[in-house]
Design goal:
single chain; 122 residues; mainly alpha; Helix Hairpins
């Protein structure tokens, strides 16, 4: 029986976690067109947000709403990856999980549109 490796602690754990995060971002960039498109939009809108006349909270909301889209896309991709790992078979629960992940991305897009619309129109 294999004994589990001891988990890294302290700075080593943080370095490992950073590496895993960068690997995840790289994988999403390489494999997900939607993620690439959203990163490009973020690279445009986040700098633009700082040229808009609003409060510090307004700037934070503008930036956070865009980053929230990227977050939801990464989680959606993770859900899809796990479903595909389990089985390539079409199953109602697999469809449901994928649809719910997609809905989360859609809601994050609506959230960003609402935040940007409210701040730009007031």
């Amino acid at each position: 029986m294999n004994t589990p490796r001891p988990k890294a602690k302290g700075l080593k754990r943080l370095i490992n976690a950073g590496g895993y995060s960068l690997a995840g971002l790289q994988d999403a960039w390489q494999s997900e067109e939607a993620f690439r498109q959203e990163v490009i939009v973020a690279a445009i809108l986040i700098p633009v947000s700082f040229f808009l006349e609003t409060t510090a909270v307004g700037h934070a909301l503008l930036v956070a709403s865009i980053l929230f889209i990227l977050l939801m896309e990464l989680l959606n991709t993770a859900i899809e990856t796990v479903i595909e790992r389990i089985s390539d078979d079409i199953h109602p629960l697999s469809k449901r999980a994928k649809d719910l992940g997609s809905a989360a991305v859609f809601v994050s897009l609506l959230n960003a549109a609402a935040v940007w619309g409210i701040i730009l129109l007031t």
